[in-house]
Amino acid sequence: MYNDLPEEELRVYQSAQTCPDDFDSFWEQTLEESRQAGGETTMELVPDDLETLDVYDVTFPGFGGDPIKAWLRTPKNPRGPLPTVVQYVGYGGGRGRPWENLFWASSGFAHFQMDTRGQGSGWSVGDTPDNVGASGPQVPGVMTKGITSKEAYYYRRLMTDGVRAVDAARTLPLVDPARVAVTGGSQGGAIALAVGALVRDLSAVAVTVPFLCDFPRATVVTDAYPFREIPDYLSTHRHQADIVHETLTYFDGVNFAARSRHPAHFSVALMDVITPPSTVFAAFNAYAGEKEITVWPYNGHEAGGPDDDLLIRQFLSQRF
Q1: What is the chain's Cα-based Rg?
Q2: How many CB atoms lie within 10 A of CB 271?
Q3: Which of 30, 172, 282, 308 maximizes the CB count within 10 A of its CB?
Q4: Domain count, the chain
Q5: Where is the Acetyl xylan esterase domain positioned along the sequence (predicted)?
Q6: How far is Cα 316 from Cα 84, in angstroms, rounded to an integer?
Q7: 2 domain-assigned
């Protein structure tokens, strides 16, 4: 059922989210520190029996130089460096198995799929631990991990990993560094929005039902998890609401969208209770670059599923 604003109101809705004065300097410093931490990017061919594709096990330096895992999937015997899709994973998932998610490589792209630190046990396996950050009280999941400090908050690390994934992909011989786009759904869409704002020379950004947008509204209009983790935390830490919401201003997709000028494709589902459509439109309406949005009136968090894949492929092919 519909549980949010009517579509005509969604198309003009503006988030009440604020942006801190030091938003840009915070992220510039974060990325500079992680790049200065260094680290090696390695790539090893995975033995398999895929007849048309190759899969490489990649390790690259993420936040603070931490080793982050990824898969690079490519067509066999490419004629030269390939246009590349860097993909980020939804909440609770990891990079999965080498032989999963073959759509992008089968379509002729290099596909760099980043693992998600500290996740990868919900619906898809992961291989990257999260061994840094605050160890204070939190509710299950990662939404409140370090949430009283922008420096310690979990998504500072994960979003930085997302930027460093683009850095790493561009160093690989099978990747054309001038033709790189980022994509993801839900949490993966949130990371793609952040990377779109923090990396200035991408070919495009494509996000489906992006998570982590419009925290002031999202935390009070849905009871669905993972957003619900934040109200759960504040229901016991009652006097920390102001500092929690201050932290979240540095990680809100609305504030990233306002800084991104790459061509962007969005997807939203009007029956989605996990990422309510108003929160997606909040980011879309704030987006500063060329943009388009596909609306799925009768879908929930799955949105357009394989139809979204096809639309994004068409969108990226035009931009590459």
Answers
A1: 18
A2: 18
A3: 282
A4: 1
A5: 3-315
A6: 10
A7: no
Residue 97 lies in a domain: yes
pLDDT higher than 80, residue 143: yes
User: pLDDT of 28-43, one tens digit each?
Assistant: 999 999 999 999 999 9
On whether residue 59 sits in a domain, the answer given is yes
| Residue 310 scores a pLDDT above 70 | yes
308 included as an active-site residue: no
Single pTM value for the model: 0.97
Active site residue 317: no
Q: Indicate which CATH number applies to the domain containing 280.
A: 3.40.50.1820
Task: Return the percentage of the chain with pLDDT > 70, whole number.
Answer: 99
Task: For residue 111, list its beta bridge partners.
Answer: 73, 85
Annotated active-site residue in 186, 203, 267, 278: 186
Structural domain boundaries enclosing 158: 7-319
pLDDT tens track for 227-271:
999 999 999 999 999 999 999 999 999 999 999 999 999 999 999
Res. 133 pLDDT band, cuts 50 70 90: low
Is 272 one of the annotated active-site residues of the chain?
yes
